[in-house]
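Ops channel
N.P.: pipeline sanity check, posting one input/output pair.
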């Protein structure tokens, strides 16, 4: 009976936290929609009729999610200590699903707000740079252009270095592969004298062909020189 009453108390607490989270996430979603539409992007701007900032709302939602997780864990332990029924298992699974849905929704809205805030800060920085340029004249713009060119050159150099390192690794791999092939051929020639003799014959024939080709080229060159001198 104590376990059953404990389970009901935990369920009551879980439903209360879920209700609070539903309200907070609804307000947080409206705030996120305002930020996405460009309503404001200041982290200290008060949220929908509340005196708290949206950062405070994030902390409150995060705290409620942690509390709901603790309550769900307590419910799991309470259900495990008693003979679990199908009804209890289904209810516990439903509470876990609700926690998962709330967590996903919170992360999605928080990501949208963070992205839009960063975008607004970037635009504000660009506006400040433009204002400074208008106030100080062309030297400021020249410095900005030179800085952008330097950053572009550094990025290009990084790309070239990366490609060179990749090429070097590929050449090293090929050299290792060729060395392995040569080693295997040498082992094969050492084990089989006939193969070694055949390799030697190929080398001698190659040397003889090279000498013949060299003699022909030399004779042709000499003939051309004599013909040119006799004209």
């Amino acid at each position: 009976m104590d376990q059953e009453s404990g389970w009901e108390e935990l369920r009551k607490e879980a439903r209360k936290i879920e209700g609070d989270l539903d309200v907070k996430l609804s307000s947080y979603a409206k705030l996120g929609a305002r930020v996405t539409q460009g309503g404001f992007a200041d982290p200290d701007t008060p949220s929908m009729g509340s005196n708290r900032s949206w950062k405070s709302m994030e902390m409150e939602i995060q705290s409620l999610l942690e509390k709901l997780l603790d309550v769900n864990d307590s419910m799991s332990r309470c259900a495990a200590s008693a003979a679990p029924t199908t009804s209890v298992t289904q209810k516990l699974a439903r509470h876990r699903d609700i926690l998962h849905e709330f967590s996903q929704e919170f992360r999605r809205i928080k990501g949208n707000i963070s992205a839009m805030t960063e975008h607004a800060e970037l635009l504000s920085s660009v506006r400040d740079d433009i204002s400074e340029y208008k106030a100080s004249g062309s030297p400021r713009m020249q410095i900005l252009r030179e800085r952008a060119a330097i950053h572009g050159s550094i990025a290009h150099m990084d790309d070239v270095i990366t490609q060179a390192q990749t090429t070097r690794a590929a050449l090293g791999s090929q050299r290792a592969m060729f060395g392995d092939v040569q080693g295997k051929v040498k082992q094969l020639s050492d084990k089989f004298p006939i193969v070694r003799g055949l390799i030697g014959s190929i080398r001698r024939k190659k040397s003889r062909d090279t000498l013949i080709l060299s003699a022909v080229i030399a004779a042709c060159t000499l003939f051309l020189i004599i013909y040119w001198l006799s004209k």
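N.P.: looks fine end to end. The chain is about 90% helix and 0% strand.
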